[in-house]
Every structure is written in C-alpha cells, then in structure tokens.
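The authors assume throughout that readers already know how a fold can be written as discrete tokens. A single example would do more here than another paragraph of explanation. An entry of this sort, consisting of the sequence and the corresponding backbone structure tokens, reads as follows:
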Amino acid sequence: MTAPPRTATISRKTAETGIHLSLNLDGTGQCELATGVGFLDHMLTLFARHGLFDLTVQCNGDIQVDFHHTVEDIGICLGRALKDAVGDKKGIVRYGSLSLPMEETLVTSAVDLSGRMWLVFDVKFPTEKIGLFDTELVEVFWQAVAANALMNLHLVLHHGSNSHHISEATFKATARALRQAVTVDPRQVGVPSSKGTLT
C-alpha cells in the first residue's frame, strides 16, 4: 500500500502580504508561482525542481515599498509548510547535505530537521543587487524558512564571484539537502533520535 503524499497548505494575511502556499514533499517538481517578485519566482522554481517538491505560491505583497515583506513572509509560509508536511518525522532520514557547483560558485547546504531552529549563513555577495532584487534578502528568506520549519540550516559559500550564481546555488543545494532529509528510510523505526522525539 502506497503512503499518502505528505502535503501542507498555508494561508497567511497581514497588512503587508496575503499569501496562499501549498507544498507536496512527495511531488515531481511541479510549481505554479506568482509572488510578484520575478527573481524569487526563479529561485523557488529551482527549489521545487531540485527538491522534487510540488509547490504553489500566490502572493499579493506591498512590493511598491520593496521586496522585503514579500520575501520574508513567503519564507515564513514555506517553513511552516515544511514543518506541517513532514509530520511526526517517523521514518525520515532527518539529515541532508550537498555541496553544489554552479560554474565558478560552490555552496554547501546542510540541514537537520531537529525541531530546533538555527541558521548559519556564511555567504557573501559581491553585489548589493541582482537586477532589482536586494541580495541581503536571500539570508532573510532562509532565516524565515529555518525559523518556521524548526530546522538547522547551514549555508556556506566556498567560492563564487557572480551574485546570481551564488543565490541560485543556495536554493538548489538546500532543495537537494531537504530532499535527502525528508526521504523515508524503511529501516528507520520511529523518529531518528535517541531521545525518541524531534520537537
């Protein structure tokens, strides 16, 4: 008997953004995105495709101010969806890591679905913007994801000189690391922790 797909849907409305996000951890990498921020749509497409996650995001945000609220709030919703979709964590691998090359860039992403939040973001961008997108928002996004997924996330840039490639590598590498971490291992009985819980 095939297990049902692990899915979650998050709706969140504030004075700054209105977001509807759905996530399927056991998908095929399909995505439908309308965030209002073209570069973020591009990054989330990569995240879905490399994680084999089905992802839908609709967002109406105050992008006339800037992109900060939209990027952060989508990160919040994605983190909550990850937490909800993975469920009680019984049988999952829990950990995942990948060093991903992107032409001149090399980024390592390592995740632990520990039930505790921590972010190490050792990534420097050579430019302040990628088109209209502020590069500092990449860290804002991953901070929001890690905090709301209740996971450890370490992102380390080993080398790179192109801001677009660096951002892209963080999204691809984290998608691949999460893809490992959420995989169900048939040999794993219960949660992968000697404490007996991942909360």
Observations:
- The mean pLDDT is 94.
- Residues 34 and 58 are 5 Å apart (CA to CA).
- Helices lie at 38-51, 68-86, 136-149, 163-181.
- The longest strand covers residues 17-24.
